[in-house]
Amino acid sequence: MKRVETIINAVKLERIKQALVDMNVIWINIYEIKAYGKEESHIERYRSNSYVVDFNKKIKIEVWTNQEKKVKQIISLLQKEVENDIYIVEIEEEMDISSNQFHNFLGSIL
């Protein structure tokens, strides 16, 4: 099993999500996050008060798959859409909390 993840601007979410659905990806996690880094802080006004905003709203996408062909398709899609890094994480096993059993994924990678 592999997890492909990246951080995007919120305006690109629908286009990327639809492309992933069209690829028949069945496990997508989407998180709203706040990022601090390359982009500069800015001032926002609310009820005649000014606030410095250091953190920018971003979206983190995680896509899980056990097919190597799909991993390559996902990476190809994300390379066209994002300007940040793309991370590929190998998942060796998972633990089912309800049964306390471990499941090995290494044999399922195609």
Output the CATH class name.
Alpha Beta
Strand order of the largest sheet: 2-5-1-6
C-alpha geometry: extended
CATH architecture: 2-Layer Sandwich
Count of all domains: 1
Largest sheet: 4 strands, antiparallel
Number of strands: 8
Tell me the strand percentage band.
35-45%
Concise account of the structure shown:
With 110 residues, the chain is an alpha+beta fold.
Task: Describe, in plain words, how this protein is organized in 3D.
- This protein is of the alpha+beta class and 110 residues long.
- Helices cover 22% and strands 45% of the residues.
- The chain contains two helices and eight strands; from the N terminus they run E-H-E-E-E-E-H-E-E-E.
- The strands form three sheets. Strands 2-5-1-6 form a four-stranded antiparallel beta sheet, with helices on one face. A two-stranded antiparallel ribbon has the order 3-4.
- Strand 7 and strand 8 form a beta hairpin.
- The longest helix is centred in the last third of the chain and has 14 residues.
- The termini are close together.
